[in-house]
Amino acid sequence: MTLYFENARIIDPEAGTESIGNLILNAGVIAAIGAASPPKGAQVIDCGGKCLAPGIVDLGVKIGEPGERHRESFRSAGRAAAAGGVTTIIARPDTAPAIDTPEVLEFVTRRAAQSLVRIHHMAALTKGRQGREMVEIGFMLDAGALAFTDCDHVVSDTKVLGRALTYARGLGALVIGHPQDPGLSRGAAVTNGKFASLLGLPGVHPMAERLGLDRDIGMVEMTGVRYHSDQITCARSLPALARAKANGLDVTAGVSIHHLTLNELDVGDYRSFFKFTPPLRAEEDRVAVVEAVASGLIDIICSMHSPQDEESKRLPFEEAAAGAVALETFLPAAMRLYHAGAMDLPTLFRAMALNPAKRLGLPQGRMALGAPADLVLFDPDAPFMLDRWTLQSKSKNTPFDGQRMEGRVIATFVAGIQVFGPEGFADA
Length: 428
What we know:
Layout: E1 3-12, E2 17-26, E3 29-33, E4 43-46, E5 51-54, E6 56-61, H1 74-84, E7 86-91, H2 102-112, E8 118-121, H3 137-142, H4 158-171, E9 174-177, H5 182-185, E10 190-191, H6 194-199, E11 203-204, H7 207-223, E12 226-229, H8 238-246, E13 251-256, H9 257-261, H10 283-295, E14 300-302, H11 310-313, H12 330-339, H13 345-360, E15 375-385, E16 404-414, E17 417-421, E18 424-425
Helix pairs in contact: 4-7
């Protein structure tokens, strides 16, 4: 079916522009931009001046298959993504068992094929994410792995890490690191400081991130591997990142939407829905990281969607599981940055769609002729109160429960097909 969008506020992250115009989708791609009239037989969609942008490419989503399907399934994650304007999920390998063999990767690829949105997978860097023996990187690439990461299980043995990075470099594979010194961060629940002391919670100094990043950058310089840091959350890490880029290393960095919109004070009265890995930082760090995204020093914003059931969250803060669901809250949380004047919409979608797609070699994230017709139509100003029980994810662990948000998804399109809209989901 040919779709004709008229009166759309088109967000182009590649050109850095937004403008009122028309757009045609045909055969799963963007066929024309600025067409004066709809082609014969096209379905006309009046956008009413609302925003039309490339669908979000979310790098680093936890899905509970295999092993934790009660927390999140491919179906529930796909529906949450579609409702949140996420058209491409890059799933993490921290499953049970970990995605560390071609057989497991092929299994999850088959399971993900029926989702409403596109789902690609990363693979573990070491077997079982135990940091002892690297996976068969070549075989995993052949099976479809987009990148390799042990997630928050930091490989502490630098000899093992060096071998894995050298092998990945020879195959052109992207390695994603979690910059934390494992010794300093072990057992931490919050960031060190006066507030942590008042709460009586074990903390980790922000220098743990800086030390982890410095080590990883040194390993990148030694091996020449393509490297992405999953989360940079502290101001003191930014100079090291800037130097690595200035020295010509193939290094990029990301940050979660929670670390851009929340700070350490939000933990409040031991609210475990605000427990993350790494923990929420000081307001000064949050502001510095927001500025780094706006300047392009930090390349990617992700949700770090981490579903946890009630039993793992309704515990004393120190014992509670870390993480939050975020596929459906990603866009409205990002609108906080837009409404605060920290970033315009093209800059936000550069970090949420264009840059992750480019880093992974995917064609998505662009508002250009011939680009995949993966789009989100949304109203950035629409207010609502978030009720976690209305979320599509199986798990409901969101820090934004009961908060006033702005930014509603009106419709989501994948390959030119509407998968979510006012009438519901395409798989209903």
